[in-house]
Amino acid sequence: MWKTTGILLATVLILVVLGLVMLASTSSIHGASLFNDPHYFVKRQVAALILGALAAAAAARIDYTVWKKAAPFLAIASLAMLLLVLVPGIGISVKGSRRWISLGFTTMQPSEVAKVGLVLLLAWWMSRVKRRASELGPGLIVPGVMMAALILPVLKEPDFGTSILMGLVGFAILWAGGARFSHLLVSGAAAAAAMTVKIMQDEVRYRRIVAFRDPEAHAEREAFQLLNAIYAFVMGGTGGVGLGNSLQKRYYLPEAHNDFIFAIIGEELGLAASLGVVVLFAVLFFCGLRIAARAPDSFGRLVAIGLTCMISFQAAINFGVVTGSLPTKGLPLPFISYGGTSLAITLGMIGMLIGIARQSGPDDSALNVVKDRARRL
User: What is the DSSP letter of 88?
Assistant: First the structure.
């Protein structure tokens, strides 16, 4: 597995370095205007990078079976932090959303921790029920309640993008763990219907959906970021306008260092760099699946699948949003967008994947299980 982990580490290193370079390029104007320091955001991101690297190194050395024993307690801790976000005086409200907890010297986003808590909890449960996973109760209802316990507080913040991401990854773990596809299909349709109703009742999110369907008609408001992101790709063309020379980040794309940083990559570095980022995340996805395929047991396999999907699905959603293929959602691009908690936790996920790989053998039985599940469709 050293070849797989080597490729995985090299991929993550490239993405992190690219993220720091692009963050330095996109955040300098914003940092200078708000904090009188063009390197303000880069400095904070480097601090998170150091913390995340330490977390990854520690996670890589921990016997992954420790996570199995700790999974219920970590999930409870994640839920407690999610609830603290909603408490006035503890949770921080920004632009109508309460997603952060103040730690005095900095802030943290509990939903990032809840992503890992969800993966570990579902992997713990599905590895316990094993063959009973095809039954309605143990394979869907019980883990469905577990998912709801962690997702509903995130939805309450509100954070629709992270809620949807957690739901998708949760269903992926249940399917890989042996749940019936028909059960997942019906429950997934019900969840999608409920989410649709929730979005319809939220004026801001509903306007985003309307703007997504007809961006030109809402170019001055809800579709402003989307259209300017698309313009960034158009202006970048094949070779880009050059690092640091983006026009969109200066005048048109607000806070380009966050969720829409991929558009600035397209503008400054061009189509080749944009496609390169997509390829790197595809490589990360297949490395994660290979680690899952060679995991020693079902718990390790499901954790590896869950962590891999959490990172890869988030990147795919971000690509879809920035290119106008999906409605606008507030999901950062892993390793690249600004966000200390996101970067530190995502690097910790990579460390956990490496920890599983370190104890893996040459057996591809887990991969055969996944193939068998696919054939049953």
Answer: B
